[in-house]
Amino acid sequence: MTVMERIRSEVEGHPIVLFMKGTPTFPMCGFSSRTVQALKACGAPFRAVNVLEDPEVRAHLPRYSNWPTFPQLFIRGELIGGCDIALELHAQGELARMVADAYKAA
């Protein structure tokens, strides 16, 4: 399986996927930490992929998503964006709705 196929499998195989630096328990950057906190505040179970442990995913994900930075949040196979977008959606109450919808359709 190529790295692009592995990325696609993660994105399509889980309702919510966060490609991040570190883990939800031990985030390795502030942006990843804040995104995790926003998802947790919504009560969202999510799949986290630590890009620091997989250099191939870290190198190829920006090409897959056409988004240059980490973290990258996907909901139902669609790139939502990075930390700033996730926090903005959370502040507006939209992230909670998107999360709830992701699991209704799952």
Automatic annotation (TrEMBL):
Residue sites binding glutathione per the record: 21, 58, 70, 83-84
Domain Glutaredoxin: 16-80
Pfam families: Glutaredoxin
Gene3D superfamilies: Glutaredoxin
Keywords from the UniProt entry: 2Fe-2S, Iron, Iron-sulfur, Metal-binding, Redox-active center
Keyword Metal-binding in annotation: yes
Ranges in a coiled coil: none
GO function terms (MF aspect): 2 iron, 2 sulfur cluster binding; disulfide oxidoreductase activity; metal ion binding
InterPro entries according to UniProt: Glutaredoxin (IPR002109), GRX_PICOT-like (IPR033658), Monothiol_GRX (IPR014434), Monothiol_GRX-rel (IPR004480), Thioredoxin-like_sf (IPR036249)
Database matches in PROSITE patterns: GLUTAREDOXIN_2
Binding annotation for [2Fe-2S] cluster: 29
UniProt keyword S-adenosyl-L-methionine present: no
Domain of life: Bacteria
PANTHER family: GLUTAREDOXIN FAMILY MEMBER, MONOTHIOL GLUTAREDOXIN-S14, CHLOROPLASTIC
Family named by the database record: Belongs to the glutaredoxin family. Monothiol subfamily.
Listed name of the protein: Glutaredoxin
Organism phylogeny: Bacteria, Pseudomonadati, Pseudomonadota, Gammaproteobacteria, Lysobacterales
